[in-house]
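Data card: per-record layout.
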Amino acid sequence: MKGATPVILIALSIGLFVYYIRPQYEQIGALQERQEEYKDALNAADELFKLRDELVNKYNSFSTADLRRLQKFLPKQIDDVRLLLDIDQIAEGYDITLEEIEISDVGEKNKNTKGAVRQGDEDDIDLNTLGLSFTFDATYDEFVDFFKDLESSLRIVDITELSFRSVESGENEKYSNVYTFSVALQTYWLK
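The structure for this 191-residue chain is written out next.
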């Protein structure tokens, strides 16, 4: 029996290792891997919090006037009445009266298309568009000045159609250099 005791103890040790210690060891290894994943996630969260704080500080450094200008430049929602009033205000500076005004919802602008967003940008920007068309009577010089002011306004607009015709002169000399311009344009807002 003295010779069997070491064999029994070795067999018992092997059984204990196979059925208890090895599964516990594997479970500890899996938990350690999971702990590392959690540490990585916490580090990434800390970096995101730091980035968020930096962006909030940067945002707060802008003046309210600059934020309003940015909102006008690319609004989060479209206000077609405000757009029309802005364009009409520019036109009033040249004694231009907008007529035959039509507003149409053009729909969604594709991501990364030519125009407002360059192809190949890594960040996708979803834009919606709104169409606006109108006619007005003006001289060529008034037309050029009106479009220069429209171009330099904060609102992004793309002229999609432009046509003109001369006004019937009749007997009034006032209409000799006046044309009727028909304009269609698009503006954008964030989705």
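Known properties of this structure: Confidence is low (pLDDT under 50) at residues 110-122. Helices lie at 4-61, 64-73, 80-92, 140-152.

See the next section for split statistics.
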